[in-house]
Amino acid sequence: MTPTSSHVQAYLLLLPAFVFLVGFTHYPAIGTLIDSVMLALRGGRAPAFVGLDNYQAMIQDPVFWKSATNNLWFALATIPASMAISIVMALWVNEKIAGRQFLRMSYFLPTVMPMIAVANIWIFFYTPDYGLINQVLQLVGIKSQNFLGDPNLALMSVTIVAIWKEAGFFMIFYLAALQTLSPSFREAAQIEGASRWYFFWRIQWPLLMPTTIFVLVNALINSVRMVDHIFVMTNGGPNNASSLLLFYLYEVGFKFWDRGYASTLTVVLLAILAIAGLMQFFLLDRKTHYR
Amino acid sequence: MVMRLTSKKKNPNVVVKPVYAGSYQETIVKSLTAHKSGKPPTAAILLSTDTFTLIDEEAIVPMNTFVKTDADRQWLKSFFPAFMLNGQIDNKTWGIPFQRSTVVMYYNKEAFKAAGLDPEKAPTTWTELVEMGTKLTKRDPSGNVTQWGIQVPSSGFPYWLFQGFTTQNDAILANSGGTTVAFDDLKTIEALQFWMDLSQKYKIHPPGVVQWGTTPRDFMEGKSAMIWTTTGNLTNIRKNAPFEFGVAMLPGNTRLGSPTGGGNFFIFKNAPEKEQQAAYEFAKWLTQPERAAQWSIDTGYVAVSPAAYETPALKTYAGEFPPALVARDQLPHAVAELSTHDNQRVTKALNDGLQAGLTGTKTAEQALKDAQAEATRLLRPYQ
Description:
The complex is a heterodimer.
Chain A: H1 3-35, E1 38-39, E2 48-49, H2 53-59, H3 62-94, H4 100-112, H5 115-126, H6 132-139, H7 154-180, H8 183-192, H9 196-207, H10 209-225, H11 228-233, H12 245-255, H13 259-287
Antiparallel strand pairs in A: 1-2
Chain B: E1 3-9, E2 14-20, H1 24-36, E3 43-47, H2 51-56, E4 60-61, H3 70-76, H4 81-84, E5 88-89, E6 92-93, E7 96-108, H5 109-114, H6 126-136, E8 138-139, E9 145-151, H7 158-168, H8 186-200, H9 215-220, E10 224-230, H10 234-240, E11 245-248, E12 258-268, H11 273-286, H12 289-299, H13 312-320, H14 326-330, E13 334-335, H15 343-358, H16 364-379
Parallel strand pairs in B: 9-10, 12-13
Antiparallel strand pairs in B: 1-2, 1-3, 3-12, 4-12, 5-6, 7-10, 7-11, 7-12, 8-9
Helix pairs in contact in B: 7-8, 15-16
């Protein structure tokens, strides 16, 4: 076979994958980029080219900035918190303890439940006065809080739901990784008299690094993707206090029907994710030890 | 609750294929996306406030296209006038009322008795609302409120309940052409100030933004003695409230008032003519007095025509359960639900302002001036 024909064959074999990649990833991305410099006109008239007007409008849009800052805080809270909790849970249910199957299932349960359903339950947890959380607070003498209706608490409240939802999912990855570690490490550590913390920090944690990278990428993606519960719990309110970028994007695209501006927001979201993704692969991958 | 309907004409009968598309928001997303891709449904039940959006997207045809006989004209006049307001623009009727509501007040008769109030007399004025609300607000020794006097939800779509206050204060939020709004009108500001005062000054209303979804539950748990919510909650509260409750019209200030709400029946422009005609026949069938009466009994929505209230079914039901008539009796005082061009965006400007006021982030005046500025900017292209 000549080199050319083997190339052709290779590309032919890749063709189905290419079709899907182009059709569902590249074409929409480029289409979005084009739409973002267009002004969508009503009634199906062809959109007009407006250059960077949509971007200009975005820079002057206070709701965009509010959603962006909210999203930053949301990410800064959900990523480390859900990862830390998931690793602690994984270490805990990896031990030989009574009822660990039950524990594993309980931790994983939030992941398998639909977000819309759990958000409806959380609304009642957060309800002032007789909601579960407020009842507990009142027992210890703290005044009932209007978690979803107070601009200072709304973002924190929806963040906690996201952490609760995510931690169990990440736990599964850590648990799987922990179970591939050879038991001889632990035995050696015990013989050497290493403390639990030392064993975790010097042996388990470095060996879990590939999993951590994977989880980190997922946590980052989820921090801009998880907005289902916002629709149910706060609708971005009060006064945009809990609005996130993707939620705002939905409002602009499917409530205001402003396709041009929605595309602009999408481009920004894509850019943020691309930069974050690249940074992870270039900076962190180098420091990670793969076996 | 909401259905989208595609129908196909088979002489002489009409075959209707209903599609459940989820909430109003999901249904309009599906319908408009389908319209934009050239394959619209024949007809859909959508929020009456989306009429301007549907016209601007050139998605719907006016009903007048199909009104040909005297019987047709009679049918078009058979509805409660208040329900036609949102659907009639430029002397054309774009939407037919299907499941419609108003805001009503539910109150806990046992709480009224406990507070020494007459359980058959709900407040009819703002002054009475504050007086009775004060008596109904109960606090434990440490000062925590165990029962609020009045609760008006403000999450999601606070503008709708706010329209109760503004109408009662004789302010109309938008012109019928949907091109100007009166958010910074003095009477509108007074209305917001009153709503804010209920919690910030009189302390008889829960602070901050109150959840729409948990409000009926708050009422049934006895956390709030009076609530404002849609008449569509009537059947739910009737089934689940563990105490005797009453339903009343909203209290008035300079006048009585409530907005209407709910869904209209629309026919899509790009559907084949035969199907449009069939959809029109279907709309007539759906709104027959007997059908409308049954729909009202099952859900608590207001039946769309006076004739429906003359049917034996609804007469019997109302005889057993008089609160079912309150929403209808309120209709003469009802106004169109806030609706403008670019409706959802303009409404969001108001919603954000209302929530900023209710959470104490802005003064009533500042909140509404900001909302007005944003709305005016958005509406400029339509003037």
